[in-house]
């Protein structure tokens, strides 16, 4: 498992988190749910994405923008539009409101689409767990990728799929949206002059990339710097320096942080598992040593963390906020 694959595995479209709107100016759709991640791409036409604390971003045909929650945003025909904003969320689902024209179980065949209209495809993503929080932390509130890249082929499939109403449509849309998000994030991280997170570039280093893959594939293994160096074919000193230079911390410090991230999700997902059970899964034979490491990294011991997560307190953070339907 590569690191990016690990981090994005909890970011999945899963039914109903999809909408496609065909709009004629003036319009202003205010997306109020504040989903952890929302992907917007224009099939035809153009508009602007406006958020509260960021400059307006143009969205032309085949451009894609990703907005990181809990920020809400508005899609408008032009900055300063005279249109009254329509709150889009759970109930924004009828064409006469300027909302979704295509959704599972609803076809509008035969309706005329006005020439020059803008068609917007939106996918809102729940983001599950501490693992994917690491990905969110690497993203700005708004990121934009121009059309013409690898996502164009996906967009063609999306546009074709929303125009039909067939069995299995929701599954296809979910997977296409996931594909589109991966393509968008890859291109944004690789953009000329960009500043991707250290781990993104480190994955491509022959030595450090292999070390990261090993740590992610076998997090519970009894790793030492010597063992990791032996598996990557370099000396301990070479691995330690190269890893710290590219990732920003020593290999075993990174491993501890990753183990605690895995443990945080397991504490929530496996309600019947004891702290000792979780400790063994992430490579600790001693639950007391695990608890001490967890508190040092996470700021609370495992039992406290589990209780806090179960109550859904604000400390749980936006990455674990429940998904709402965006049609």
TrEMBL record:
<keyword id="KW-0238">DNA-binding</keyword>
<dbReference type="InterPro" id="IPR009057">
    <property type="entry name" value="Homeodomain-like_sf"/>
</dbReference>
<dbReference type="Pfam" id="PF12833">
    <property type="entry name" value="HTH_18"/>
</dbReference>
<dbReference type="InterPro" id="IPR018060">
    <property type="entry name" value="HTH_AraC"/>
</dbReference>
<dbReference type="InterPro" id="IPR020449">
    <property type="entry name" value="Tscrpt_reg_AraC-type_HTH"/>
</dbReference>
<keyword id="KW-0804">Transcription</keyword>
<feature type="region of interest" description="Disordered">
    <location>
        <begin position="305"/>
        <end position="327"/>
    </location>
</feature>
<dbReference type="Pfam" id="PF12852">
    <property type="entry name" value="Cupin_6"/>
</dbReference>
<dbReference type="InterPro" id="IPR018062">
    <property type="entry name" value="HTH_AraC-typ_CS"/>
</dbReference>
<dbReference type="GO" id="GO:0003700">
    <property type="term" value="F:DNA-binding transcription factor activity"/>
</dbReference>
<dbReference type="InterPro" id="IPR032783">
    <property type="entry name" value="AraC_lig"/>
</dbReference>
<dbReference type="GO" id="GO:0043565">
    <property type="term" value="F:sequence-specific DNA binding"/>
</dbReference>
<keyword id="KW-0805">Transcription regulation</keyword>
<feature type="domain" description="HTH araC/xylS-type">
    <location>
        <begin position="209"/>
        <end position="308"/>
    </location>
</feature>
<protein>
    <submittedName>
        <fullName>AraC family transcriptional regulator</fullName>
    </submittedName>
</protein>
<dbReference type="InterPro" id="IPR050204">
    <property type="entry name" value="AraC_XylS_family_regulators"/>
</dbReference>
